[in-house]
Design goal:
Elements (H helix, E strand, L loop, with lengths): L3 H6 L13 H12 L10 E6 L2 H8 L11 E8 L7 H18 L3 E6 L6 H8 L6 E10 L20
Antiparallel strand pairs: 1-2, 2-4, 3-4
The protein binds flavin mononucleotide.
Length: 163
Amino acid sequence: MELLPAIQKRASIRKYKEGKLSDEQIRLLMEAAMKAPSGMNIRPYRFVVVRDEEMLKKVKTASKYAGYNAPNAIVVIGNTKASPFMWGNDCGAATENILLQAAHMGLGTVWCGLYPIPGNGEAMKKILSLKEEEEAYSLILIGIPAEEKNSRGTYEEGKVTII
Ligand SMILES: Cc1cc2nc3c(=O)[nH]c(=O)nc-3n(C[C@H](O)[C@H](O)[C@H](O)COP(=O)(O)O)c2cc1C
């Protein structure tokens, strides 16, 4: 089981080819999301997968930096009432699992920040008519990549303390 190649393959993709996610692809991505660790295993999230063109245009307006031509999107939504202290962590873990599973499947993604950027979460809350206790955590744009990129992350020894 080689995990590092998928991690190294993941990069933020901002140019996409046409092509909607299949039901099977969505199933695998959602399975990966829901297998992320979750505080007390409350799993206080749900996911809205957007293939519809009209809705796609709308969800991209929630962030100033999501105006890319991705033909699909996934919105990760946290339930603040179900897990007041850990919902954000859980949504972050689920988001990253989606990005890695997508890379493994040859799909490109970019994580567009919603929570806690002022305005972004609120805008998405309106677009998707979320409940009072729900927060829009992240907007993942996803599809077949039209650019080749490597992750910008680099190993920096100075960031590691071994004691
Ligand atoms: C919390 C968060 C919010 C981000 N928001 C955006 C965004 O709104 N638009 C965008 O193009 N990229 C966004 N990114 C992607 C980062 O710019 C990207 O991960 C970083 O530059 C490193 O590049 P890489 O992902 O290709 O390794 C976001 C990433 C994270 C983790």
